[in-house]
Amino acid sequence: MPNTKTSDDEFHSELPPETVDSLASSLPESLSIQVDLPAAPARVMPADEVAVAIDEVAVNPGYVESSAPSTTSIEVVTPPLRRSSYAAVASAAAAPAASPYEALLATDAAAAAAQHSRRDRVRSEHVDMAGGYEAPVEHSRGDGPEDAGMLTADRLLEVNRRTRPAPKGGWNRFVYNATFHGVNLGDSAKVRAEQAMTDRIAKQFTGGTRFVPILTRKGGVGKTTVTTLLGMALADAREDRIIAVDANPDRGTLSERVTKQTRATVRDVVTKAHTITGFTDFSSLVSRDETRLDILASDTDPMLSEAFDENDYNVVADLAARFYSIVLTDCGTGIVHSVMRATLQRADSIVIVSGGSVDEARLASETLTWLEANGYGDLVRNAVVAINTATQGTNLVKLEEIESHFQSRVREIVRIPYDPQLAAGSVVNYEDLKPLTRHSARTLAALVVEGLPADRGM
């Protein structure tokens, strides 16, 4: 197809000049073309823009004061948010908002709600020296009001030079006294560790008395010694009442480990049960140690034909539950007598005592097996094994292997070291024990307390 395209010059050259002039004179000077387009929707100003809109006022650009500043800066200071408010602020900022202004309002509302919700709970605040902020320690009201025991000095007092307690010993105590109480370095790491142990032992209970029997199948492994040490460690660290009951059906020796203040025994408690109406009546039948441990002796008269049985133990246990928070039971060597059954039915946790010899460790393990076979598997898994290393043959065996065996069956294991005062089999003075012995007794007490339910029904 031939190319028919021509340029303007070629077009003009093909027409005569007179024809071009005629066409030019016939064209209008201007040309208007009207096009109808669809109407655009009218924009409605949002409410937030209306609220912050600036009225359009005519401004005379020539009227400007030379002394006036061109701009004005206003510093807006917002109070720092606590850690509990961060989550509320973050969630409000993440939620979709209709506009930035509404998002800001939602963020402020969330922060305020977080602050008000904190005021609705009882709380105390401590200063975190590492982070430089106040870390709240919440005390939830729960289902009812708090008791007076919640008003502790640690909660109410601000820690400063006047309220900070004096160091308890060592170099820090010397500096405190030498500077006339001007320099208080606080307690050493050792003292703080001892206080932490005391706090573990002093855990509070609600909902009735806790029963802890101390038992084993073999005699002569230190069961009465362990009962004495455990009771003294508990009574020394706790503020409530602790009692150790000698429930040996034959003749127990628990009362010989403290200075006797009465000749009464469990038999007297049973016969006088109907006359015991208060703690004063009951306390006249027990001996109290310097640590405030009460001990109820067993029958010592060999002429008695009727042994201490299950019914007698239940009478004693019911009375003890009225006045004591923790009842330790020094059980006999047998585990099939009726007293053992009544003891295990009340037990919240148990302590198994083992010697350091092969025979003693095997019999202690068999005690656990018997308990599991008779429906006390939960007590076995929550049990604490106390290994008395003062028995004969301890230096000939691998104590680590004995501990490894019991670790597969019970919750915790504690070694009780040799102590001359304990080996004498006489009155035990808690303050005269070796530091390692006291530490082992306190460790045993802390582990036993941690295995007891903190809150349960009566």
Automatic annotation (TrEMBL):
InterPro entries: AAA_dom, P-loop_NTPase, ParA/MinD_ATPase. It holds the Pfam family AAA_31. Residues 1-26 are annotated as: Disordered. Residues 211-354 form the AAA domain. Residues 1-15 have a biased composition (Basic and acidic residues). It comes from the Bacteria. This is AAA domain-containing protein.
